[in-house]
Design goal:
single chain, 66 residues, 1 helix, 23% strand, globular
């Protein structure tokens, strides 16, 4: 299974992209700036294939982390 990382994967367009990758059998890692704000990412768990979804912390201002 291939893995893809998506920055902004819970936003309006990012959610669509996340859903498409999950539907096509990818392991998906969506970056999160605040993991404590579960409401922002909860809708991703409703997608088909969400068992292959991982939400990971990422500070997008840290170029080394990117």
């Amino acid at each position: 299974m291939q893995t893809v990382g998506i920055i902004g994967g819970s936003g309006f367009i990012g959610s669509y992209v996340t859903r498409k990758f999950l539907e096509n059998g990818f392991q998906v890692r969506v970056s999160a700036t605040d993991l404590a704000n579960e409401d922002k990412y909860r809708h991703l768990r409703d997608f088909s294939g969400a068992e292959h979804l991982e939400t990971v912390p990422l500070n997008t201002l840290d170029s080394a982390a990117l």
